[in-house]
């Protein structure tokens, strides 16, 4: 069915609809596939959403509070500082919404007048009786539907929605973020370079919607590019919902090799034997990588390939989990000689343990020991930032309980999200993972652990292509 049969004001993107009712976008996509939720060119009607999720509580804005809690507890961001747009941007967004509302009201008034006139001309005809009944039913639509549409209006002012073509990725522009910053916060591997308006690498074409320039840039667009609607995403924010044509890396092969110098930002003990090492990259030379990839790190003349434990959504902050290993020069340097502010050489990224850019499915993560958790954490945080998985199960298998060095974070994920389950396991063998049909399985550990998991999955007739593996070096 075509969207032109319905006012656009009554249609919601799947991403925004999922946030309004408090479920992952993948849940709505599954309902669309099953035929229990109607979709119109990737959008849903407010009344259909209400019927699919009866009793949704919107008055206390519970979903927005849940999103904020996830970000603060699971990602450790200072959300409040960037929760509100700039006042000029906010005023411009309100102006755009007011104009759209006026157009929608005028269109609705014309449609209503035409329908009433048609009803008069069909008076006494069965078609006229049906039309009158449908008009009365429409006027008496439920309060839940009105509340959905009202909340949608608020969200469009506070967090415009962006869709990227041709890839189909979606994200929201929150607070004072530029479009590029919002894309990076959502974990998208957008093409960009300096992020300050000098290189032009983040240039994209606006297919639909409006932007507002919020930063000066030295890079000059050609007249042809301006006529085509091109803009630098690092210097503009969204005034309205957007559709943009831009390059987003969909696989490890699409990320170029890089060499940069970062500096140690902090070193926090996660346990007696594991340190969280966080480095900060320069603002004009950030490391582009996909969640789950590794980097070659050089400290004090010692090089080591280490899995990145943070999500690309953290932008300039890159984290590693370093374990105390007797006799290991890299580990010894981190635990005994490394200082805050010290320069760190990074090369990469390397590895293909990345989230599949396909139709979302339930995800199962199996992390073996201390070394398997870091890459799994990165991919999980990326999945959370995208909010696309129907559900996430994390099974962390260790030989002794002390190796669950980040169990508090895992429990915070489980507490904050209804579709997340954490299972800590103290054993040397793979436990029963339950029904794995229709799920993607991500496994990280040493070669023997990964092969044992692969064999177990084969015994349960799980297709080999449904498993993605990371093997420690």
3D architecture notes:
It is a single chain. By secondary structure, this protein is α/β, with parallel strands linked by helices. The protein folds into four domains: 3-155, no CATH class; 161-245, Roll (Ubiquitin-like (UB roll)); 255-350, Beta Barrel (Elongation Factor Tu (Ef-tu), domain 3), CATH 2.40.30; 363-471, Nucleotide-binding domain of ferredoxin-NADP reductase (FNR) module (Rossmann fold). Helices cover 35% and strands 23% of the residues. It has 13 helices and 20 strands. The longest helix has 35 residues, at 87-121. The model is unreliable at 1-8, 58-67 and 69-82 (pLDDT under 50).
Question: C-alpha Rg, in Å?
Answer: 25 Å
Strand order of the largest sheet: 13-12-15-10-11-14
Largest β-sheet summary: 6 strands, antiparallel
Oligomer: single chain
Helical stretch tally: 13
| Low-pLDDT segments, ≥5 res | 1-8, 58-67, 69-82
What distinguishing features does this structure have?
473 residues, alpha/beta, Ubiquitin-like (UB roll), Elongation Factor Tu (Ef-tu), domain 3, 4 domains, six-stranded antiparallel sheet, five-stranded mixed sheet, 13 helices, 20 strands
Topology (SSEs and partners):
Elements (H helix, E strand, L loop, with lengths): L10 E3 H8 L3 H10 L8 E3 H7 L9 H14 L11 H35 L4 H14 L3 H16 L2 E5 L4 E3 L6 H7 L17 E6 L2 E3 L9 H5 L2 E3 L3 E3 L3 E4 L12 E12 L4 E7 L13 E6 L2 E6 L9 E7 L5 H8 L6 E8 L12 E6 H18 L5 E7 L8 H10 L3 E7 L13 E6 L1 H13 L7 E5 L2
Parallel strand pairs: 3-9, 16-17, 16-19, 17-18, 19-20
Antiparallel strand pairs: 1-2, 3-4, 5-7, 5-9, 6-8, 10-11, 10-15, 11-14, 12-13, 12-15
Helix pairs in contact: 1-2, 3-7, 4-12, 5-6, 5-7
């Amino acid at each position: 069915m075509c969207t032109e049969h319905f006012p656009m004001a009554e249609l919601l993107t799947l991403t925004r609809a999922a946030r309004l009712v408090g479920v992952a976008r993948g849940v709505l996509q599954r309902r669309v596939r099953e035929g229990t939720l109607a979709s119109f060119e990737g959008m849903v009607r407010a009344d259909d959403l209400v019927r699919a999720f009866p009793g949704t509580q919107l008055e206390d804005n519970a979903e927005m509070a849940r999103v904020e809690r996830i970000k603060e507890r699971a990602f450790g961001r200072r959300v409040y500082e960037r929760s509100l747009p700039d006042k000029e941007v906010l005023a411009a967004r309100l102006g755009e919404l007011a104009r759209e509302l006026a157009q929608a009201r005028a269109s609705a008034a014309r449609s209503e007048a035409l329908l009433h006139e048609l009803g008069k001309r069909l008076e006494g005809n069965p078609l006229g009786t049906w039309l009158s009944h449908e008009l009365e039913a429409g006027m008496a639509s439920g309060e839940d539907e009105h509340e959905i549409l009202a909340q949608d209006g608020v969200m469009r002012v506070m967090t415009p929605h962006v869709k990227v073509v041709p890839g189909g990725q979606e994200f929201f522009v929150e607070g004072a973020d530029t479009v590029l910053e919002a894309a990076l916060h959502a974990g998208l591997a957008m093409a960009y370079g300096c992020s300050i308006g000098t290189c032009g690498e983040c240039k994209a074409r606006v297919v639909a919607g409006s932007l507002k320039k919020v930063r000066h840039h030295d890079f000059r667009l050609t007249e042809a590019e301006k006529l085509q609607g091109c803009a630098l995403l690092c210097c503009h924010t969204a005034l309205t919902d957007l559709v943009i044509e831009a390059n987003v890396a969909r696989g490890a092969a699409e990320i170029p090799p890089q060499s940069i110098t970062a500096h140690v930002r902090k070193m926090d003990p996660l346990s007696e034997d594991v340190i969280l090492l966080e480095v900060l990259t320069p603002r004009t030379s950030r490391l582009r990588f996909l969640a789950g990839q590794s980097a070659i790190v050089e400290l004090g003349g010692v090089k080591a390939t280490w899995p990145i434990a943070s999500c690309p959504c953290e932008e300039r902050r890159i984290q590693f989990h370093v374990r105390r290993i007797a006799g290991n020069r890299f580990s010894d340097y981190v635990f005994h000689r490394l200082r805050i502010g010290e320069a760190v050489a990074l090369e990469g990224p390397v590895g293909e343990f990345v989230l599949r850019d396909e139709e979302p499915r339930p995800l199962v993560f199996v992390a073996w020991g201390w070394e398997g958790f870091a890459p799994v954490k990165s991919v999980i945080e990326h999945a959370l930032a995208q909010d696309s998985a129907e559900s996430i199960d994390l099974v962390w298998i260790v030989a002794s309980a002390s190796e669950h060095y980040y169990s508090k974070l895992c429990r915070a994920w489980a507490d904050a999200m209804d579709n997340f389950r954490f299972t800590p396991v103290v054993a040397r063998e793979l436990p029963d993972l339950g029904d794995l049909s229709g799920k993607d399985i991500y496994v990280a550990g040493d070669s023997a652990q990964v092969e044992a998991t692969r064999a177990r999955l084969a015994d349960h007739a799980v297709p080999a292509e449904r498993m993605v593996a990371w093997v420690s070096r």
